[in-house]
Amino acid sequence: MVRAIIRDPILLSMKAAEATDQDLSDARDLMDTLKANAEVCIGMAGNMIGVNKRMIAVGGMVRFLMLNPRIRAKRSPYHTVESCLSLEGEREAIRYQEIEVEYQDMHFQKHRQTFHGLTAQIIQHEMDHLDGILI
Question: Which of 4, 15, 41, 46 meets the CB 3.0–4.6 Å disulfide criterion with 132?
């Protein structure tokens, strides 16, 4: 189900709780909402659709979902400017060219994967949402 995008900075500033198997329908809604907004959005966090759980959806050529992601390593910092579907305007941010992330899939199987470039930037932006950081 496609959900409305939350734009309330108070709600977006709250730290997300761990996702559980009770949250799988919300995770599917997150993926549906990202797909519906693909022309203007390449990543989305749960709180952007009103679900304050640790889940992110990443868009691009291949869409995928991460539950309870945590960055375990990061390399090669750089400065960039980003926009966000939930907020107006652009903001400066420091990102890393390469990150290593631990996360769970929809079956709660654990994964550890390295991401580079734009995909790494998207994940970092969405994980800021999970930590209540507005960027």
Answer: 15
Instruction: Find the CATH number of the domain harbouring 49.
Output: 3.90.45.10
CB 10 within 8 A of CB 52: no
Dist. CA 89–CA 70, nearest whole Å: 27
> Given 39, 88, 102, 126, which residue is catalytic?
126
Residue 2 has pLDDT above 90, yes or no: yes
- In a domain, residue 114? The reply is yes
Residue 44 lies in a domain: yes
Q: Quick check: is 64 in a domain? A: yes
How far apart CA 38 and CA 62 sit, in angstroms, is 12
102 is catalytic: no
Cα–Cα distance, 102 to 71 (Å, whole number) = 6
Maximal CA-CA distance, the chain: 38
pLDDT per residue over 35-68, tens digit each? 999 999 999 999 999 999 999 999 988 899 999 9
